[in-house]
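Repro case for the chain-ordering regression, as requested:
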Amino acid sequence: MSLLAVGTVAFDSIETPRGKADRIVGGAATYITLAASYFTRPVHLVSVVGDDFPESELQHMQSKGIDLEGLQILEGERSFFWAGRYHDNMNARDTLETQLNVLADFDPVIPPSFRRPKFLMLGNLTPAVQQRVLDQLDERPRLVVLDTMNFWMNTAMDSLMEVIAQTDVLVINDEEARQLSGEHSLVKASEKILRMGPSTLVIKKGEHGALLFGSDSIFFAPALPLSEVFDPTGAGDTFAGGFVGYLAQTADLSFENMKRAVIYGSAMASFCVERFGIERLKNLTDIDIKKRVEAFVKLVNFDAQL
Amino acid sequence: MSLLAVGTVAFDSIETPRGKADRIVGGAATYITLAASYFTRPVHLVSVVGDDFPESELQHMQSKGIDLEGLQILEGERSFFWAGRYHDNMNARDTLETQLNVLADFDPVIPPSFRRPKFLMLGNLTPAVQQRVLDQLDERPRLVVLDTMNFWMNTAMDSLMEVIAQTDVLVINDEEARQLSGEHSLVKASEKILRMGPSTLVIKKGEHGALLFGSDSIFFAPALPLSEVFDPTGAGDTFAGGFVGYLAQTADLSFENMKRAVIYGSAMASFCVERFGIERLKNLTDIDIKKRVEAFVKLVNFDAQL
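-- result from build under test --
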């Protein structure tokens, strides 16, 4: 089913204990659409870049079934740029530089042919921009999935709460869930957040996996234990892209299928961190993904013999 | 099958964000034997207390099938005492006071009837004391399970490595695994540690669950998401007690059964943190435990539909 994804397309400069990468392609919507493209096509992208964004990268996205009609390319302007350095344990990072560039005045324009998506993924952006997307749709999608971050809770809480109220699935990390709810216990946090609008909450815990909360059910998916994490950048967005892509492919919004979507999202994220940036996500096969999901089954499967 | 457990029996004073408890019963072997007693009896305890240790608590332990013949009660001396305060997030704690008391010169004496245990659980203690236990056994147990901590890696690494070399299952937390191996990745850490002697490694990650590593298999068990963690003290020991108790009950050392043992250990730990000290562990029923294990099945179970 049709999927519309909105978020940043950008350049990142990244330092991790494993190495350094300068001005590689990044951005939430890049990871989201790439991950989702393995499950459903076309993926409609709405975003903005400057004329410094390489044509070859855009062609690669198109080759993956990502429809770029909604990507604004602003002449004479520069793409969003972020530089960061990860700590030794990869669990924390420092932002070294942020250049908003084209993002400073980003006003998303949804092409007419994109205005009836069955699935909508709102990547992390100013809540007002996320709202602008919702406002341009001709009808409500079957499923609205939202990502956000602490920064918007600190600076734009009212408009964020309005967007959350229109969301079906909120996908945030554990610290964001704690800040949003004011509760340390993720169980209590989920109870509060599910009263804000979403019927489903996914809490990403990075290397510690992800929790899926429905109205009266909890599901836990681990992260795959890896010998080496190369670069965690984009793992959360890749998770979200795999999650919503799988749901769009299967068109089944039951809790049982949401569980599978969390596993597929986790599988895609486990690929993401194996190389810098989007490198590992560029050329996966269905067999690669199936094998990775099998690894998750093996990792958690047990016979309780009750 | 017969189980021998060695470790501290002590008093703890504990402050958590949920409240305060003064001089309550604690100690690694207390939690271990209590958790194990739900699976196998008798549990033979080897430890030491002073004459300040309440008779009523000893009677309670005996009522649970814990054999105290190996518990030294030293007249005119005081029991080991620890006081600590947990941080707001419960993931870290500060030690406020440690009084070794009877533990300073603890020389474990294994009663003759305990010297052929099929299962041995060596709780966290000076490696030299753990070695003294091994030296007094008439034959090698079928399974030796060892717990230790960073402190011994800093102060007694050589004797610790000797004990580890005689161990079948090492049960430590993530930070300890990283320090012992010098590897941040838990996958790499497990590879190194499994070359030190143990054939199986359990890495406890607190609220993030536990990993079980065999020679070529990995299993992950989550911690149960709880609305309220009252007091994390003893959760790791309770996990170890449930783990080894289940193995002693089932007498099956296959990886499949080790997986179940990790789940039972996690279930027991999830009870432990619901109240201060050993309170919640005192009067569980088989139904309570079965229901808790069912909650774990529900939490991680999914049909991948591959």
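Ordering looks correct now. The longest strand of chain A covers residues 66-74.
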